[in-house]
Sequence to fold (168 residues):
Amino acid sequence: MPTQVQYFQKSTRLTTPLTGDPLLAVIENSPTTFGAVLADACQQDSWSDRLYLENVTWFRATRKQFAFTTLSEAAFCTVDGYSAVYHNASRSYLPNFSQIPHRVLFISWDECHLLKANLQAGYGKIFFESVQQHFGGLPGFRAIENEFTTPDGYADVTPHRPLEMKTA
Fold:
């Protein structure tokens, strides 16, 4: 079964991933929690059709705090018909599974470095707002002031074995 991922650059839909470019993906959006991954690059495995992410920053925010951690790799895959992000080293899934394909947005290296710098400096709110702005122009997403909505069925299913974020 093909990996359930759709690729975008700005608001343009792509048919294949841009394997040398950094990417962003919203992987969780509920009334209480927001999650995203930022990766330096990706590779698509033609045999399994998984999209492997390299040098991943996993960001997670609640209403009052944020945290992030780095993972050497992760992969978009399909599990029981859901789009998921799997972390091989822990054999766990990042929250959340999606009933519809995850959207992967390819960004510039400058944007990637700025997002990472904001996190390193403790500016989680700026990172959060930037991700929302990037995704706000994609089909089914909306970012207006303090409200961010995703398409129905997007990243709303708790995984079988969720990975717990551990921060230093």
